[in-house]
Specification:
Elements: H1 2-55, H2 57-63
Length: 64
């Protein structure tokens, strides 16, 4: 009976190891895939903010 539980525990441990591996690989793939999107979005926001500030520079000079 003890051998059965040891074998069952070993199988459960193998399944948990596979699930952990799949989760870590999936997380790494999501991070790798989202990095260019984050970079492009932040670049677009920075360019938009710079354009907005430069186009309203005359208003900012009057207010200062």
């Amino acid at each position: 009976m003890e051998e059965f539980f040891l074998h069952l525990w070993d199988e459960i441990d193998d399944v948990i190891g596979v699930c952990r591996h799949v989760a870590s690989v999936t997380a790494a793939e999501v991070v790798a895939a989202s990095a260019p999107v984050i970079a492009a979005t932040s670049g677009a926001l920075l360019a938009g903010a710079a354009t907005l500030l430069l186009s309203h520079r005359q208003l900012l000079d009057v207010l200062a």
